Records
---
Amino acid sequence: MAKKIQLAVVGLGGITRTFINACRSALADEVSIIGAYSSSFERAKLFSEEFNFPYYGLYEDVLTNKQIDAVYVGNNSADHYKTAKLYLSHKIPVLLEKPLTLKYEEAVDLVRIAQENQVLFMEAMKFTFYDGFNDLLKRLENQQYGPIKYLDSLFYTNKSGNRETRHWKKELGGGSLYDLGCYQLAYYVKLYQEPDNIVVNSFEVINEVEVRIDYTLFKNGVPARLSTSFLGSPTGAHYQQFNIHTDDYYINSDNFSQGKSFKVYDHQGRLTYETTPINKPDMAYEIKHFCDLLRTKQIQSNINTFSFSLSIIKIIDRILREIKLL
Ligand SMILES: NC(=O)c1ccc[n+]([C@@H]2O[C@H](COP(=O)([O-])OP(=O)(O)OC[C@H]3O[C@@H](n4cnc5c(N)ncnc54)[C@H](OP(=O)(O)O)[C@@H]3O)[C@@H](O)[C@H]2O)c1
């Protein structure tokens, strides 16, 4: 059996819990988590009592543990750049949560550091690894449903109940594009790489944080109208749709951020195809891929490539500059 990859987790919040659970339930033969690192010693202690591994109250403590093969960084988005930079510049491979960084130039810098240090660096965007997603992408690329006429997608959640969370705070990297828009843009970038033009239709800002935005991306005249919001939806607290329209087909998912259940309907409304569901915890696929890249000494994923991740943050950066939030 291949040697287990020894990982450290950095930033001990909700998504890191999901990450640890995925490792433990689906990748126990593949991965060991050998340390939990937080900006707060108390939080590290509490968290590690729950999961039972060594804990540390400084991100820098990773640098002195030579047993660590790589780190998973799941801290606040505003801290992604400096945290990933710390590890990559010490040649420690990094799996970094989305959004990669808050600014395009920071993401470019991380890629440069990874390349100069010949060290693995990948964004933790999970659904790009699912068979269903890749099968649908292939069908679209092969023009099985004809050319795309337009795309539209809404991703609304109601985060108004507690405005003390990271979503609302500029200093923590809040904003609906960073939090929700990343997922829509991941699809967009896989289909089109980058738009020729961007038009912002409307947006709302609270305390310097963009909490709702509606914009259209154009590529060769094909529009993609995308909206995100923290302010809820007319139909309830949480609502998401991703729709792809061709002359003869309508392709839809109401759970696209999880990369699940895309359905293809013909012009008479008959269901003609449905993507296969995943059968492991959703983060397990990206973690397995990351471990394989480590074992084969790659510095870049062939799925979540540098170019893929850079394009996503480049589009976000362009939009936020347009509305004067960057
Ligand atoms: N890929 C995905 O599906 C997915 C899903 C959700 C989130 N994310 C991304 O993951 C990152 C973290 O999101 P999250 O939902 O895990 O956020 P979160 O629960 O608010 O945690 C964010 C960070 O805040 C610190 N923290 C945790 N509890 C805290 C508390 N009680 N008081 C103060 N600080 C606390 C932790 O860092 P320290 O321990 O170092 O202080 C933690 O890493 C974001 O960049 C987000 O975009 C990705």
---
Amino acid sequence: MNTVLPLSEPLPPAGRRAVHEANRLAKRLRHQVGRAIADFGMIEDGDKVMVCLSGGKDSYTLLDILLQLQKKAPVSFSITAVNLDQKQPGFPERVLPDYLSSLGVDYKILEQDTYSVVTRVVPEGKTMCSLCSRLRRGALYTFAEQAGFTKIALGHHRDDLVATFFLNLFFHAKISGMPPKLLSDDGKHVVIRPLAYVREDEITAYAEARRFPIIPCNLCGSQENLQRRQVKKMLDAWERETPGRIDQIARALGDIRPSQLSDPSLFDFLALGRRGDAPPPDAHAWLAGDGTATATGNDDPAP
Ligand code: SF4
């Protein structure tokens, strides 16, 4: 049970360096995932962790690294890989069961034809990913509740966290992202993202080294939406121009200073520097103005 996938077949001598590199990469990923788990208290003793496996590089990597960490973890927890077969045309049904059986890991394949729903509801030419993901999440969360899983692990990585931050900033005017750990809206599920510190390009390299049997997500022919593509393009360009910038941003997401922003619900600006005997501000009076602005005929706010 829970064997770590060995690097497939025996490698030719020319491959020894590649194996060495892959082992170093695996070690780095284990370290980053272990750190994220510890920093956010993602996994506790006795947890039943459901790892959502789509068949993409991210979720394969997540499962693989968690299985490795499970062997040496200071706590005992179970892992079950769960895939939702959404009935996309051409979905290779045997790939995941064969792979998971070869690992000896506990797994479950759910079946729900969300593809038909999505293609019926979404107008032609529009991206289907948002509704598709919502339906997938609904099916997986329902199963997690029925089966009594205590944690749901998703394969989002550092670059996803950064991209979501900018999507919210640019298109929803809010400073908000994709947290490494969260409680679902209905309060029933704790969702964890153990790859929160892992770079996407390292996941790509790892998936290649491990030869995961990748199933493309876009079998349905949908494209990710324009906003997400724009943000990705922007981040790629930044990284090309200034290597390390995405890392800086990712670190900034974990170093937030509410007193240096402008959200009075996060920081008590009213109390800041207020004299003990000063009356609280009368918002109504301030909004109405005290007469000076009208007297000068200049209502523009000060620069
Ligand atoms: S690419 Fe297709 S299967 Fe993947 S999330 Fe989008 S709509 Fe769903």
